[in-house]
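Form 7-S
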Amino acid sequence: MKIFEKTKTTNGSRIIKRYKICGVTVLKKDIDNKRRKIRLFGVPIFYNKKYKHDKRLKFVNDVKIKKYEFVPKIIEFEKCENPLVSIIIPVYNQIEYTKQCLYSILMSNEKALYEIIVADDNSSDRTKEILTFVKNIQVIRNESNLGYIKNCNNAAKYAKGKYLYFLNNDTVVQDKWLTNILSVFSNKKNAGVVGSKVLTGELCLQECGVYIFSDIFYAHYGQNANLEESNYVKECDYVSGCSLMTPKWLFDEVGGFDEIYSPAYCDDPDYCLSVKELGYATYVQPKSVIIHYGSVSYSGDSNELMRRNNEILKRKWKHIFDIKTNFKNYKVPYTDKKRPKIILVIDDFYPQYDKHAGGRTIYQFIKAFLKMNMNVKFCPLMAEDKEEPYYSELTQMGVEIVESTIIKKWIDNNPVEYIFLSRPQVAMQFMTKSLVNRGIKVFYYGHDLHHLRMSRESHVKGTNVQKEIDRMYRIEKTAINSCSMSFYPSIREKEYVEKNIGPRVKVVPPYIYDESQVFEHEKFEISSDLIFVGSSHGPNKDGLLWFLREIFPIVLKKIPDIKLNVVGSEIDAEVNSYKSNNVVIKGGLSDSELSSLYSKVRVSIAPLRYGAGIKGKVIDAVFHGLPVVTTSIGAEGIPPCDFISVSDNSVGFAELLIELYSSAEKWEYSRLSQKAFIAENYSMEKVVDVFLEEMDTSFIDNE
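Output:
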């Protein structure tokens, strides 16, 4: 072993340097375009968040920044007869910028179907000859110079796409910028306009949405392009016309850009406000990244024109400007005098909904809070890095990520009405009573009673860990009694908490299901085999090994060709050693793959000997139309039903399984009321109703 060792690793834009003595990391430097962090013996000792005007910036939202100093003489696009998007590029001279813009589109790895319309506003340079060196585009050439706004409106008449996308010619688009914009229209049914994260030529932010306050128009200008406050999909008052997409039917209904602002400026906020009047919203998509050099085609007195058009805009939309509040950075993106309440959700790591039940629960709770029209922030307290795809999924849903290194400062410097703490190891990091005394409602979600689970494990394994159990009991008791309200998954835990800890506790369903997302299950005679879902986490592994050693041999004597499918993201060597013709180790599966497997197997098993709380694997199997054989621990907290069979001994478990697996009548009967059971107990509406008992979601003063 080396006494001193220095290592350097890279991951995209990140550079991580470690300095080790005798194999132990004593100093770690973590550097990327967004931050610099230094840890000494694992303790953060330095953190710097912002860099501005960094020409060395290489990644924005994990998109590699590209500029094109060399543009080939001939640029050729594929022909597109049925475009989804019509890209309209208004131009007046500046052919070199136009060529660079077009080439960046060609090189952007874009899969969306598009046509390109170059709207030539009577240029006098080589733009007149553009079709000789750019192939398969459409050129609309005006006989006289119409000005930017009239030029755009005229070109839109020739568009064939479902969406119109206005793009300035002094821009350079980045990979998949168009697909990322389109994704917002798919995910946000009220989207009427979507724009991009726009960088200046110096690669700092020009805008990430624009926000109209009573005293200023704010656009994040000059900030580092990777700050979390500009990294999530959000509504804004308007987006710049340099990158603006809107449905063609909506553009036609509004009447296009208002030509009262001709030749240019203020047409984009006017259009977005017109769209809002029709009940649609404007969003900014930070994963759609472009560079914008800015107003290279306009040679007039832009300051005077902007002053004139600003006055027109404020007169026309006086009723909108009258409800705007004054600017403070923490108010973004909410610019009206009333705003939604803020809820800060804090968990240990990102919600890994496809790997463990706890992550899935928090992911679904976040969706519930969004459905309740709250402004949702999320902090993964113990995560050192972004965890994908969970980071991107949250930010694309409209959730701002608050980094753990600044979380306590963030709470001090931002208005927050609710804090939702997940798990005892998270709650113990905060002075909950102090937060409550400041007027913040603090909620605690325990997932299960950890000390009770530890006690049961100790009993099963014959270990003596009473000190650890007592310590966990104190942590959970403090969390429950110091918060405004605690939540647990079942009535069993509620009764236990009320009896042994304190009265502030309610039951909230830990799982949310949508019937439209489930696969249709095969008939009895077509289905076959068993399924076990769970990682090598303590109770899961113990239960699976118990089944393989003591129960499955009994089953195989009666049904020798039966197979057990073992599904889990972290299957260890000991479990893998049981792999055989009858034991199929599937490993981790995606949600769709798991649903497909559920639809084909006949019975699900959950042979748990210890644990606490409602078991996600049991409810999940029920949702997918499968009867379940489990133990009293596996069935704990679940309302009584016909489709869950329970036995705590090896022989009884095997007999129930054999009977259920072999009898079509028994199997069909057990499945009769599953859909009604799920709808009654595990729906989004049920979860929202519980939270609304404790959370007032009415808008409050934004002052």
